[in-house]
Amino acid sequence: MTMLRLEKNNRLRKINYYKRKALKPFNLSKWVIKYKVSQFLSKFIKTENVVLVGERLGQTANDTSYFLFKKACQTKTKNNFYYVINKKATTTSNLAGLPNVLHYGSLKHFIYFNKASTYVYSDSLRDVFHHWSDVHKEHSHKKKIFLQHGIFATSRAKGYYDRNSMLRRHELPDKFVVSSTYEEKLLQRQFGFMKNEIAVTGLTRFDYLPKNNDKKHRSILFMPTWREWLTNTNDDAFIKSEFYKKLTELFLSKDINELLAKYNYKMNICIHHQLKKHIDNFKRNFSNIEFFCIQEINVQELIIACDLMITDYSSASFDVLYQKKPVIYYQFDSARFFATRGGPLICPLTEFPGPVTKTLDSLIDELKNLLDNNCQPSSRYVKAANKFFSYRDNNNSRRVLQLIEGEK
Fold this sequence. Notes:
Rossmann fold, 2 domains
């Protein structure tokens, strides 16, 4: 049955690939025409000081850009904020009741992209316009604020978020938002940014996290990072990968499931959006393990509800650390991962804000220790985590808005 499903999925992917290839010339001319029309129509829009906000190529409203927009809608501002999102995106519901929401790719989106004086993005400038690389020259004079979608420390993102790479993609921001003076120094030393290009404000989504979350929810959040070398793999190749084997080994582990039963805990698995097409390969009839896709849920609810996190390299670990909750890093393929992305910005032996494990057995040992101690992180890791937060005052969004508004 599984082989039949694999063959069907592969066949559909091939059909869609050739369909996209055949339609590419038509789609290109279609967006160019829309863009030219929108340039003309934007001259008739009376609204000034437009700030266009987006994240993850317009696919979500649950990350740093969304939380900034939410704050802007609750605040009296000099600028007019607009949020762009795919109308079919699951998290569009988070924008219900908020004004100035544009559908990604619509003519109205194109018009306000041309009208905007400032772009705010969490991943790339394609968050606010898919064809940014084709039109960047006409908009290079506009203000650009890069919010990040997480603190850079555990994963370098080599060749993408360093200054030279962003400059090469014409995405160099006027301000690169960070969460601490410690992170600011890391970006200057290792990413090549200048001090005046960095703003220490804190991430906007941290404002909606409890600073001291003492209530126990009896929940563990497992949030693995994507591997670039698995991009565009079919199901057959994916289930043969080390990544798939290590993850299923964890889910099916007798020791893990016994620990969950013994301490009356459940495990929520939040997978990267690149994994969505493979999610059926993971699903089993688990009584205490549940799967979610990052694109389709409010990730922050899972982060707030967890008592501890297991991840490999995810920057989302800092959302958990912000709440003074423990994180275990399970890095079974660190050599290959860091060879692809570049090593972490901090020392993996002494500076990680949680224990770093390489094997399932060592992960189980660390997990048992934390469950035995009611999920209280050790003082060593609390101290390591605190360096990454200059603010814990829930005013990060306000500081970013002041940055955009030109206030001190």
